UniProtKB/TrEMBL annotation:
One annotated GO molecular function: UDP-glucose 4-epimerase activity
Origin species: Aeromicrobium phoceense
Protein name per Swiss-Prot or TrEMBL: UDP-glucose 4-epimerase
Gene expressing this chain: galE
Catalysed conversion reaction: UDP-alpha-D-glucose = UDP-alpha-D-galactose
GO biological process: one example: galactose catabolic process via UDP-galactose, Leloir pathway
Organism lineage: Bacteria, Bacillati, Actinomycetota, Actinomycetes, Propionibacteriales
Length: 322
């Protein structure tokens, strides 16, 4: 028996697969490589090149590999771009989750950990977000993830599916020297790529209602996040009752300008960021309490902001300068 990791060739998914391996759990990866990297998955891990929307092939593959639980990360994850490509976002995220749930029901796979997002909260009207904070997503990405949570909740009510959804905040750093964030939109890879190529990193918006005018976010290290997935899936398989959603947050906010300074300190490269306009779908501030996850999932932060920055820089791919 094995655990299916959809999106397991991606930045977060690959870290989850490595964490499962360290815990002595077998995994199978499904990924269509639209944003993932085949080399992130070690040769000994079964790899299926497939989009989860392809329902018949998905059922066949899950049956062949005797899957007992699913960690579902596969999605179109870019909030800003989702505003420009809503139909694509809905099809990949809501459609993919629906296809997966139908396959799980057909094969009687009884547990799922869902990769959700802080984007379900939109711009909160509280200093610190908890799981009870109102959900008001401001992008098709956030909306599609919230609907994914609802789909899983409804399926659980109908079939007894054991489940939980983990709402991520800003996931950064690297826990393995060969794994890195290659997103063309996330802050850390954008800054690192710019510096590696001799360019000035960019700040998107400096007129937000925050102390320095730049967005404030809650940053967590990807290795800590991966461990939370392992704990969640193990407890579901053991029959433990978990909450429907958990925030995986730090509880402390850091601004984009502060991140820029941390990057400068870690790399020894002095720079003045180039200020651009705001990106659509980016709320001003999101900081969350991880108290509930600490209670039920042993959630704790073992990496500092300096660790996050240094590990991201150390794992960066080598790219030629323009």
């Amino acid at each position: 028996m094995a655990i299916l990791v959809t999106g397991g060739a991606g930045y977060i998914g690959a870290h989850v697969v490595r964490a499962l391996e360290r815990a002595g759990l077998e995994s199978v990866v499904v990924d269509d490589l639209s944003s993932g990297h085949r080399e992130f998955v070690r040769p000994e891990v079964p790899f299926i090149d497939l989009n989860v929307l392809h329902a018949k092939q998905l059922v066949d593959q899950l049956a062949e590999h005797h899957i007992e639980a699913v960690i579902h990360l596969a999605a179109f994850k870019y909030a800003g771009v989702s505003v420009e490509r809503p139909a694509h976002t809905w099809r990949q995220n809501a459609g993919g989750t629906l296809s997966l749930l139908r396959a799980m029901e057909r094969l009687d796979i009884g547990a799922i950990v869902f990769s959700s997002t802080a984007a379900v909260y939109g711009t909160p009207d509280v200093e610190t977000v908890t799981e009870d904070t109102a959900t008001r997503p401001e992008s098709p990405y956030g909306e599609s993830k919230l609907v994914g949570e609802w789909m899983i909740r409804d399926q659980a009510q109908a079939t007894g599916l054991r489940h939980t959804s983990l709402r991520y905040f800003n996931v950064v750093g690297s826990g393995e020297p060969d794994l890195y964030d290659s997103s063309p939109h996330n802050l850390f890879p954008l800054v690192i790529r710019a510096l590696a190529q001799g360019h000035r990193p960019r700040i998107f918006g400096e007129d937000y209602p925050t102390p320095d005018g730049t967005c404030v976010r809650d940053y967590v290290h990807v290795a800590d996040l991966a461990e939370a997935h392992v704990t969640a899936v193990r407890r579901l398989l053991a029959g433990n009752e978990l909450e429907r959603v958990y925030n995986l947050g730090n509880g402390e906010g850091v601004s984009v300008r502060q991140i820029m300074q941390s990057v400068s300190d870690a790399t020894g490269i002095a720079f003045e960021p180039e200020v651009m306009g705001r990106r659509p779908g980016d709320p001003a501030r999101i900081v969350a309490s991880g108290a509930l996850a600490a209670r039920d999932l042993d959630w704790k932060l073992t990496h500092t902001l300096d660790d996050m920055v240094a590990s991201a820089w150390a794992s960066r791919p080598v790219e030629p300068a323009d």
